[in-house]
């Protein structure tokens, strides 16, 4: 690689290659001890000698402006020797060729699970159905690209990073260890982030390189991924091919599921969460809502020369729900049972909890049957079926699709920590009463637009007894907030919210200590409401909180000699009793398919979701709606298409389709509330539920519309072309 | 810089004169030269609408227009239209209806929506959806945005 011309270009400060960056940043290997046998080679911030996918950076230009940097990049001369690539997952599995010879094969991770007795059940079942489903890889397309500004201070040997990330403390640990800067000298600040959805929870080589170059140059360095760079290097997700089988009795009882899943993850497992988790979740979640007892699964996670894949909103759920609900509909069709009735017969009963699934997942309490009943009610299922039948006679092909789901939320340390990842499963909240009676909330969960700060303010306000306008919430700064995991796996409300609640309750008690001392009254007689200390029984105002604050901070001399006020309280919370706090929900889609064009119109969508305590109904609805539309994107439009040479063919928003307002339906959301008993708040997660179930509901609706025409689609996204192919028209 | 062209335009009511490189697009100019960072860049391919600004009364994709092309033009951005209170009812409705999550699409979305509202047309939900169908939002799923615009057009439901 010849960097000299670029180095001489106007405005250029430095041009560096992988070797130069490696002096300042150690490589990483993304494995987890509890994913037995997972392997991946060491990965550097920038490629040294060999690049494994289009999107792996091999040189960086640092210039005074973006345009100068981009001009200079064009002057870098690289002599590439093309190596054979493997882009197809079957070829990868067969090791043709092996990407990292030192690993022996292309298998990053494999897992097998067997309850035993599966062959027997399949052999004796009245009805066995089988289908192979394919899922295109897609990506997050956050409207704001990944962004980082790293500022190294040589005098202090400290690094301040302004970083659009979901996990500031995780990144603090990673910058510290890989750049060899003491942890306390690294501060990660995360202000408003333009959408994340799992995209911004991973370690990105270009971001590590940016931080390393800041150390190298001893000055601030900024990198913002433009749209092309985002398509090439933001993690992708969901490239799966899976065969699924279901055995049933002729009475319509589900007896056993079987899965054989292959997923292709690019040339490296992504650090530090690994690229084994998505497939692992698929294995765990297949058949999740149902009562069957037997299950066997096989998973292969293989390396390919495409962009890396990793955890993206609803991780594994859209695949597992589509596989399960897709095969359930095929079974219902074969049995001649209405799909809603078939589900009713097989969903786990609402009084069966605690319940352990065949794969060993423990459910504290779910509400599948109530959810189904509610869904059928709000969508007027029976009338909709009658209308569908009427319209079919007039040549209008409408389809109704259902999708039941369970979702992983509020993960315990069993998700990452036990595997050796330095990822916090606990979160903390600090609440401080300010002298004016205002409340400052500092929490380790970050705000990515989902409304974290709004619900923390609500929880804090009610826990302490102040009005919402008195609360100020701050998140996303490792130098300021308590330590914690951040935003991922539908955990912010359930874990961070509980920490806020507990801190709020403790602060309320501490405020009352001050008030009791001031008023010379028994603490038990006092309470806080509407920004004032009140009489617990009469609610009569005794003392404004501003007065408590004034005395505690400025005139503590007027308090009893042995009394010290404590008006800042920190509490932490870790879910421990269950590995995950599962939620449940069900979605339904109504679509119309035009058999002449293959176009799908989305007419209506419904979602009934049980995420435990709902803190803010509007935010909860909007999490579902946003998630559903993201799921619709994967089902109908979005796919990262690669050529046989491993080149991304559609790396722009003009070529990669995303859901826009014109095509999206109105979405009806209803919440059931089965609070978790593990926390005082009772909240489970909701952020990923929409994305988990929507693709399955859409797929089943399309196939329901196509059924009278004898066609079925099984490959997402369901483009008009694929639908026309299924209809035998092209 | 010898290519730079003297360009004079009015931005949010203020006359601005700068020497601008021809290749700089309008939003880079607004953001980098004038510090008006409310206009966002989501794709720079003319697809996402995050860069929507008003030029001579019409909304345009600020990433597809070169700053030098705005010579002699009147440019209005989210900052100016906020200060003038023209967007106030829409902003209130967005706020109340939670029509933004991360907010990155919001400036562009507001300008696109206001473009419809200004016509005085009693647009239906479908027409509202069609009018903002060039503005990408990854967070909301659009329904809340449609609700908010509908409320401004038709009054509270
Ligand atoms: S940035 Fe201009 S349309 Fe996307
Ligand atoms: S609110 Fe995040 S992109 Fe629209």
If you had to describe this structure to a student in words, what would you say it looks like?
The complex is a heterodimer of chains A (730) and B (157). Chain A is built from 19 helices and 27 strands. Chain A is globular, with a radius of gyration of 27 Å. In chain A, strand 20 and strand 21 form a beta hairpin. Helix content of chain A is 30%, strand content 22%. With 730 residues, chain A is an alpha+beta fold. In chain A, the strands form 8 sheets. Chain A has a 6-stranded mixed beta sheet with strand order 3-13-12-11-4-27, sandwiched between helices. In chain A, strands 8-7-6-9 form a 4-stranded mixed beta sheet. In chain A, strands 16-24-25-26 form a 4-stranded mixed beta sheet, sandwiched between helices. The mean pLDDT of chain A is 97. Chain A has 3 domains: 4-83 and 149-223, 2-Layer Sandwich (Aldehyde Oxidoreductase, domain 4); 236-412 and 577-726, Aldehyde oxidase/xanthine dehydrogenase, molybdopterin binding domain (Aldehyde Oxidoreductase, domain 4, 2-Layer Sandwich), CATH 3.30.365.10; 427-573, Aldehyde oxidase/xanthine dehydrogenase, molybdopterin binding domain (Aldehyde Oxidoreductase, domain 4). In chain B, a hairpin with a 2-residue loop joins strand 3 (52-55) and strand 4 (58-61). Chain B has a 5-stranded mixed beta sheet. Chain B has 6 helices and 5 strands. By secondary structure, chain B is α+β, with helices and mostly antiparallel strands. Chain B has helices spanning 26-33, 78-83, 88-96, 106-117, 125-131, 143-154, and strands at 5-11, 14-20, 52-55, 58-61, 74-76. In chain B, helix 3 (88-96) crosses helix 6 (143-154) and helix 4 runs parallel beside helix 6 (143-154). Chain B has 2 domains: 5-81, Ubiquitin-like (UB roll), CATH 3.10.20; 86-154, Orthogonal Bundle (DNA polymerase, domain 1), CATH 1.10.150.120. In chain B, 34% of the residues lie in helices and 16% in strands. Classes of the chains: A alpha+beta (730), B alpha+beta (157). Chain A binds chain B through residues 65, 67, 140-144, 192-195, 197, 226-227, 448-451, 618-619, 622, 625-630, 652-654, 658-664, 666-667, 690, and chain B through 21, 23-24, 32, 40, 42-48, 50, 97-98, 100-105, 125, 128-130, 132-146. One FE2/S2 (inorganic) cluster (FES) binds next to loops of chain B.
């Amino acid at each position: 690689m010849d960097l000299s011309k670029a180095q001489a270009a106007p405005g250029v400060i430095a041009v560096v290659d992988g070797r130069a960056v490696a002096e300042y940043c150690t490589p990483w290997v993304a494995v987890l001890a509890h994913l037995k046998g997972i392997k991946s080679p060491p990965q550097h911030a920038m490629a040294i000698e060999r690049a494994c996918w289009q999107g792996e950076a091999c040189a960086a230009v640092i210039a005074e402006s973006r345009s100068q940097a981009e001009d200079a990049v064009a002057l870098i001369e690289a002599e590439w020797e093309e190596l054979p690539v493997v882009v197809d997952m079957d070829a990868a599995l067969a090791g043709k060729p092996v990407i990292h010879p030192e690993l022996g094969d292309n298998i990053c991770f494999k897992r097998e699970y067997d309850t035993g007795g599966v062959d027997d059940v399949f052999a004796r079942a009245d009805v066995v159905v089988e289908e192979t489903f394919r899922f295109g890889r897609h990506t997050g397309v956050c409207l704001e690209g990944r962004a980082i500004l790293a500022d190294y201070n040589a005098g202090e040997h400290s690094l301040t990073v302004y970083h659009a990330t979901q996990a500031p403390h995780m990144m603090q640990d990673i910058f510290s260890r890989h750049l060899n800067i003491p942890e306390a000298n690294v501060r990660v600040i995360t202000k408003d982030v333009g959408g994340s959805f799992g995209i911004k929870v991973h370690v990105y080589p270009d971001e590590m390189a940016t931080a390393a170059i800041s150390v190298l140059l001893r000055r601030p360095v900024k990198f913002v991924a433009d749209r092309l760079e985002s398509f090439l290097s933001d993690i992708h997700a969901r490239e799966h091919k899976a065969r699924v089988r279901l055995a049933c009795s002729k009475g319509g009882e589900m007896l056993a599921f079987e899965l054989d899943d292959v997923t292709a993850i690019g040339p490296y497992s992504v650090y530090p969460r690994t690229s084994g988790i998505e497939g692992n979740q698929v294995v765990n979640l297949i058949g999740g809502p149902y009562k069957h007892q037997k299950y066997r699964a096989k998973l292969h996670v293989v390396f390919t020369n495409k962009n890396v894949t990793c955890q993206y909103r609803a991780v594994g759920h859209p695949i597992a729900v589509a596989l399960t609900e897709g095969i359930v509909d095929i079974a219902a069709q074969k049995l001649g049972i209405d799909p809603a009735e078939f589900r009713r017969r097989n969903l786990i009963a609402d009084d069966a909890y605690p319940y352990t699934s065949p794969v060993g997942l423990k459910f504290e309490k779910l509400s599948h049957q109530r959810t189904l009943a509610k869904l059928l009610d709000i969508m007027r299922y029976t009338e909709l079926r009658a209308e569908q039948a009427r319209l079919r006679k007039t040549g209008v092909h409408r389809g109704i699709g259902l999708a039941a789901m369970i979702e992983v939320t509020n993960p315990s340390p069993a998700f990452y920590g036990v595997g050796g990842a330095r990822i916090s499963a606990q979160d903390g909240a600090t609440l401080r009463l300010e002298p004016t009676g205002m409340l400052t909330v500092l929490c380790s969960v970050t705000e990515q637009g989902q409304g974290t700060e709004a619900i923390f303010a609500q929880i804090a306000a009610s826990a302490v007894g102040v009005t919402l306008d008195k609360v100020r919430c701050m998140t996303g700064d490792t130098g300021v907030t308590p330590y914690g995991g951040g935003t991922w796996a539908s955990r912010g409300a359930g874990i961070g919210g509980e920490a806020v609640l507990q801190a709020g309750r403790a602060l309320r008690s501490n405020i009352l200590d001050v008030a009791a001392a001031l008023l010379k009254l028994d603490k038990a007689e006092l309470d806080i409401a509407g920004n004032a200390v009140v009489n617990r029984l009469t609610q009569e105002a005794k003392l404004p909180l501003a007065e408590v604050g004034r005395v505690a901070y400025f005139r503590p001399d007027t308090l009893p000699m042995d009394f010290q006020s404590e008006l800042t309280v920190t509490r932490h919370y870790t879910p421990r009793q269950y590995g995950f706090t599962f939620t449940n929900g069900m979605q339904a889609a109504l679509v119309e398919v035009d058999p002449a064009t293959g176009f799908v119109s989305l007419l209506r969508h419904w979602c009934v979701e049980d995420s435990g305590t709902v803190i803010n109904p509007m935010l909860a609805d909007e999490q579902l709606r946003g998630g559903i539309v993201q799921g619709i994107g994967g089902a109908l439009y979005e796919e990262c298409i690669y050529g046989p040479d491993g080149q991304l063919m559609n790396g722009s928003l003009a070529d990669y389709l995303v859901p826009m307002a014109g095509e999206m339906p109105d979405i009806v959301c209803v919440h059931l509330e089965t609070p978790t008993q593990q926390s005082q708040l009772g909240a489970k997660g909701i952020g990923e539920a929409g994305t988990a179930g929507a693709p399955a509901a859409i797929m089943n609706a399309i196939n329901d519309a196509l059924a009278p025409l004898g066609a079925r689609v099984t490959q997402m996204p369901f483009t008009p072309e694929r639908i026309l192919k299924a209809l035998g028209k092209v | 810089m010898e290519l730079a062209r003297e360009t004079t335009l009015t931005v949010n009511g203020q006359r601005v004169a700068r020497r601008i490189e021809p290749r700089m697009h309008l939003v880079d100019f607004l953001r980098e030269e004038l510090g008006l960072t409310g206009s966002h860049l989501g794709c720079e391919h003319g697809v996402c609408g995050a860069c929507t600004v008003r030029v001579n009364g019409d909304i345009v994709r600020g990433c597809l227009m070169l700053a030098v092309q705005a010579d002699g033009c009147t440019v209005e951005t989210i900052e100016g239209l906020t200060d003038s209170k023209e967007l106030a009812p829409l902003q209130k409705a967005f706020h109340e209806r939670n029509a933004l999550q991360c907010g990155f699409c919001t400036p562009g979305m507001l300008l696109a929506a206001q473009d419809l509202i200004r016509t005085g047309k009693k647009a239906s939900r479908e027409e509202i959806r069609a009018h903002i169908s060039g503005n990408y939002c990854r967070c909301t799923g659009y329904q809340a945005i449609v609700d908010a615009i509908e409320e401004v057009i038709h009054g509270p439901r």
